[in-house]
Amino acid sequence: MKIAEVSKRYGISADTLRYYERIGILQGIPRNASGIRDYNEANCKTVEFVKCMRDAGMSIEALTEYMDLFYRGDETMERRKAILQNQREDIRRRIVELEDALSRLDYKIDHYEDVMEHERDILK
């Protein structure tokens, strides 16, 4: 699969895919005889994982460390697990913060609805 197809499939720009390759997040992307990147299914699964982690807020630094460990093999499994556990805790913390923000928004929206309804009642 060419880079443009991978880009479209995962919603990641071709420039970003090249950047990920340049900094080592994506490794082993095969090229055809003309030197054009030719992503295989394993590469696509890696792109999908990387996108998921970035969408979840994982920093480039943490993702680079994780992927470097991944490419080194099974002896790095414990450290990779720790990185993912840290990411999970960050997500849980952000969920709590978002729930708090959502509650505040709901409160303010309800307040405005009450005020607007009261004003409509006065105008009747």
UniProtKB/TrEMBL annotation:
Keywords: Coiled coil, DNA-binding
InterPro entries in UniProt: DNA-bd_dom_put_sf, MerR-type_HTH_dom, MerR_fam
Domain HTH merR-type stretches: 1-69
Source organism superkingdom: Bacteria
CDD domains: HTH_YyaN
SUPFAM superfamilies: Putative DNA-binding domain (SSF46955)
Coiled coil residues, start to end: 74-115
A Pfam family reported for this protein in Swiss-Prot or TrEMBL: MerR_1
PANTHER family per UniProt: HTH-TYPE TRANSCRIPTIONAL REGULATOR ADHR, REDOX-CYCLING DRUG-SENSING TRANSCRIPTIONAL ACTIVATOR SOXR
Protein name: MerR family transcriptional regulator
Protein species of origin: Adlercreutzia faecimuris
